[in-house]
Design a protein that fits this description.
Layout: E1 3-7, E2 14-20, E3 25-31, E4 40-45
């Protein structure tokens, strides 16, 4: 299965999370593990796709 790493939108840190290319996700909030960031952000993957309807 082909997966991508989730990156923090604030600092660009590659989180220890992976998502499949065809995954659909929204409403999941995580805290950045970056040394100086620690911000909370929403993981949104393919949320604008027609599959969500």
């Amino acid at each position: 299965m082909d997966m991508d790493k989730v990156k923090c939108p604030h600092c660009g840190y590659e989180m220890p999370l992976q998502a499949a290319k065809d995954a659909i996700c929204r409403g999941v909030f995580v805290r950045c593990k970056g040394r100086n960031c620690k911000r909370i952000f929403e993981v949104r993957i393919n949320s604008n796709s027609d599959k969500t309807k």
